[in-house]
Recover the amino acids of this structure.
């Protein structure tokens, strides 16, 4: 099937690619603002405006490529009787966000398919989007940061990057992204024998920060290699809005999540069902959504951690000596449990907030001894293994302050941070690294 997408949108091209639908991308170069102004002056309905924009795009490309199937699509934002297109200036974006703050608007996505300059199919989806109230400073900060991308989006926001800005959403992920892939795939299947196109499933890794994550690249590779119709993205969620945002993302159709700092304990608390190991660890790094919309939590950190040590260090023996673990968050819980199960005879635990470490040690095992953060170097000569589970040294975080000069020369050092590859640290001696 010779298929053309009448758009240069990176997001729409990605959606088609994730559905394994091959299409050439062409820019129709229409006067969107002029069309919106003209139709608004005629008091056209917002869905008709979106549909007309999509039609103009598809028709223009179809006139030059009459034998091809051409997908045209566009979005408008409807609010209080007005239609919002893409913001023209930074001030436009700030004014738009100010008006939308704390209120509900409609995001209307129109899709058409043309062949031989004639419409063969159309579909219009309406998503209802309710934004959290935003202060003047929050709006200004967001607008300044988002402006390079906001110019290409109706209303000026990128939902896929900032779903935490919304308190409630009624709609479908792909409709909100700007391409209604499920009905498009169904139409193409009817007109292309044996195509078998499917709407992609979407999963995400959640953290704060999350820009350092390599998970999208890794999972994206395997999705493509195994020809699975799906996408995997990274989403930054502030801790205060984690639970609400996860439920919102489930509501728009996401299938599951990996979870990293600092959300692992919150992820477990959010779950409807928990595996035994996740419960024992007290944190989850995986959330799977079942057919009923229930959240199932698991934790694979511990088994992955031990497997990594055994596969990459021929000489590491858990029974050989004590371990010093830095940090007492969700990742540390998984590491501690896995080390105890592996047979480590003694664990020293050090955390900047000592009471958190004390509570964790009391909960898990008498084999865990808490060491004051300022005295952690005193155990370096004794330990067989040193593990950093903190976020210190991560990109965007303060350095890890530790002097490794007294470290047992035969000790194995391992670090959960991989961005950067060498954790930023203070003091003489060897550096943390992969």
């Amino acid at each position: 099937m010779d298929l053309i997408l009448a758009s240069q949108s990176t997001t729409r091209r990605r959606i088609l690619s994730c559905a394994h639908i091959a299409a050439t991308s062409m820019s129709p170069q229409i006067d969107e603002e002029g069309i919106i102004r003209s139709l608004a002056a005629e008091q056209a309905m917002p869905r008709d405006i979106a549909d007309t924009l999509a039609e103009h795009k598809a028709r223009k490309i179809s006139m030059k490529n009459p034998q091809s199937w051409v997908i045209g699509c566009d979005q408008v934002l409807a609010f209080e009787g007005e239609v919002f297109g893409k913001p023209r200036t930074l001030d436009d974006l700030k004014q738009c966000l100010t008006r939308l703050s704390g209120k509900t608007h409609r995001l209307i996505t129109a899709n058409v398919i043309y062949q031989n300059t004639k419409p063969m199919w159309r579909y219009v989806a309406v998503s209802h989007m309710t934004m959290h109230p935003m202060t003047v400073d929050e709006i200004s900060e967001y607008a300044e940061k988002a402006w390079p991308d906001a110019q290409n989006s109706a209303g000026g926001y990128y939902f896929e990057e900032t779903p935490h800005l919304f308190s409630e959403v009624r709609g479908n992920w792909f409709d909100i992204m700007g391409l209604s892939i499920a009905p498009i795939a169904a139409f193409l299947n009817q007109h292309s024998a044996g195509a078998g196109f499917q709407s992609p499933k979407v999963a995400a890794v959640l953290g704060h920060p999350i820009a350092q994550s390599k998970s999208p690249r890794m999972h994206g590779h395997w999705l493509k290699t195994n020809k699975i119709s799906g996408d995997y993205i990274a989403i930054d969620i502030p801790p205060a809005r984690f639970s609400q945002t996860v439920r919102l993302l489930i509501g728009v159709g996401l299938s599951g999540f990996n979870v990293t700092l600092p959300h692992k304990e919150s992820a477990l608390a959010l779950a409807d069902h928990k595996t035994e190991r996740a419960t024992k660890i007290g944190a989850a790094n995986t959330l799977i959504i079942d057919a009923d919309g229930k959240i199932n939590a698991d934790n694979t950190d511990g088994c992955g951690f031990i497997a990594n040590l055994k596969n990459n260090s021929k000489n590491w023996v858990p029974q050989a000596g004590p371990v010093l673990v830095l940090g007492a968050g969700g990742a540390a819980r998984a590491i501690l449990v896995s080390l105890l199960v592996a047979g480590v005879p003694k664990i020293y635990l050090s955390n900047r907030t000592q009471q958190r470490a004390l509570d964790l040690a009391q909960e898990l095992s008498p084999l865990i001894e808490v060491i004051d953060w300022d005295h952690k170097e005193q155990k370096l000569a004794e330990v067989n293994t040193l593990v950093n589970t903190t976020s210190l040294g991560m990109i965007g975080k303060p350095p890890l302050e530790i002097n490794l000069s007294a470290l047992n020369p035969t000790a194995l050092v391992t670090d959960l941070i991989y961005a950067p590859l060498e954790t930023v640290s203070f003091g003489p001696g060897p550096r943390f690294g992969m």
About this structure: The chain has three domains: 3-199, 203-299, 302-426. The domain at 3-199 is CATH 3.90.950.10 (Maf protein). The mean pLDDT is 93.
